[in-house]
Sequence to fold (133 residues):
Amino acid sequence: MNPKSIHLNPSEWHVMEFLWAHGPATGRQAADHLTEKLGWSRSTTLTLLRRLEGKGAVASDAETGLKTFRPLVGREEAVLQETEDFLDRVYQGSLSLMVSALTKQQALPQEEIDALYAMLQEMEGERHDGMDP
Fold:
């Protein structure tokens, strides 16, 4: 599965979030959940499940007599792909430009600053560990 080929729209994200949390699940289970959560009709959920199956994001199985759906792409893979797409589209791939824009809008709590600093130090250490002395 190449997550780079999977692009999820906001409605598809809702379906995938359900499957990541509850899958494998029947179309009825997904529809009941999304009707309760978002007010969607059963046909909307089933259409999205078919679309996601066509994209290769989910697979269905009808061996037990009930058609069940399960995710083929993990949440982490989808999040990473979405983040890369967003970063490329909005910030021309520049993480520092994105962080700068976000911090201009709101102050970061000290614990988040500390966490970011620790990540940067770790990345720097990994970069130096991979170099020849």
In short: DSSP finds six helices and three strands in the chain. The longest strand covers residues 58-61.
